[in-house]
Every structure is written in structure tokens, then in C-alpha cells.
């Protein structure tokens, strides 16, 4: 279940309540008259089945509540209520399979922004990858995979392509195009300092083989990227968000970026080039698979008559 809160101008409250009252996927409808201060109006609350949320939010947006008021959704971990159980039973479809498109656009849009936090996480991840390379430590490479924040913008690119939201695609692409060079430049500087300080030996790094998988590009590199992209988008569009951790550990985007930097600093241009190729293969594979998953889920919703046109971003 999801908890919905809508701030309504007084003249729109009756229609908003009617929308919620008539939908079978709604329970616990509450109206607080005159409690909203900014923007002024009434507060309408309800618990809605996840599979009904997209249709309900779109109907409320048709009343211009997203402009004249405000609409928020939050997940409910526990709902002990016969009315809630009935709403979930009566709503068409399955909650785990439901895509709340407005939520998805908002979530990916937020994660697609290039900001200090994104740059910091990506830089830390690349530094961890570089440490994993110079110490020949697969465990540290896995740590870099987990820390890397790049799946957010990649998912945003896929969402923007499928929903034809050019601004979302541009913003996400900019985050990646700025984030990776910044992280790699910082990592390059740290690698140079580490070599001059004698923290690692050039010959030892060139002869290490435990982390060779990072720059070894082959058919399975693309297969893994496709599977990871599909799993990641399924996780983002359903209630199975825990699967995202597995996606992070599956792909070698950040490790490839870190390896490319270390190899370039050490003059091993073959490995640097292969690492960059690995990075590109993973980025393209993730976006492609994520977009295909979205297209298939959208087609399924359209076939079931559950999707309405998404015109707002």
C-alpha cells in the first residue's frame, strides 16, 4: 500500500474526493478542511493499492492538483486493515508488478542530477577501484561496485527515452558525462601521488591477475550488463527494491573507470583502452535493457487498459 496526501484548493476538493471515493483501490479516505497553509486549501489523505496509484495520481493531476496544490506518495510498510486488504484485492493487477510512472519519473529525475554528493560517491568508488587494482583485491573492486551511484542516471536515461522526456535524458547524460571525468581525474591524481610515495610497485600491478576481469571485454560483458540493467529496472518499478544491491555488484562500470586510470598512469595503454571499452559496453547494455523492460511493462499495462498518457514531468 501507498499513502497518498493531496493538498487541494477548496474548489477542487469535492472532485478529488469523488475520484478517490469511486476507485476500488482506495481505503481510509480522510479530508481535513482548511488545514493547508501554503498553498492554502484542504488536505485529502488516503491509502491506495500500489497497482491503483498510477491511475489515481493521473486523475488528480487532471484536476491540476500538481500545480495548484500538491500530491505526495509514500510507501507503507504495514497496513493492518480489512479495508486495505479489500482495496488491494479489488484493484486491477498485482502490486509487485505495478509501475507508478509519476513516482518513477520523480525518483529517476532526482537521481539524475549532477551534484556534489553524486560526484563524491562516484569519486570514492573510483578511488576504491584504483586501490583494488593496485592491491590486486577483488573484494575492494566489489566494494567500489556497491558505492558507485551511476545506476541512477542510467535508469533516468532509459526512463527519458521510453517516455520521450528529452530534458530527463539530457540531465542524466550530463551527470554521467561530468561525473566520470571528474572522478577519473581525481583518481589519476591520487594514483600519481601513490606511485611517487612508493605505495605500490608498477611491476607488481602489471603482473597482477586477480582483477583481470575488469578490463577483459567479451560477449559476457554485454550479457551481464543486459541482465543487470533488466534487474535494476524491474527493481525500481516494483516493490523489490532490495535487488538493486545485486545489480550494483554485477556491473563493472566504476571498476573499469578506475582500472583505466591506473593503467593509463602506468603506461599500459592496452589495458586502459580495454577498460574504457568495458565501461562503454556496460553503460550501453544497462540503458538498453532497462529501456526494454520499461517498454514491455508499459505495453502490458496498455494491454490491460491500466495506463493513462503521462504528459507531465
Automatic annotation (TrEMBL):
Q: Which UniProt keywords apply?
A: Membrane, Transmembrane, Transmembrane helix
Q: Does the keyword Acyltransferase apply?
A: no
Pfam families per record: DUF389
Which InterPro entries did the record assign?
Answer: DUF389
Signal peptide range: none
**Spans through the membrane:** 114-135, 141-162, 174-193, 213-235, 242-267, 279-296
Q: Which PANTHER family did the record assign?
A: AT15442P-RELATED
Name of the protein described by the UniProt record: DUF389 domain-containing protein
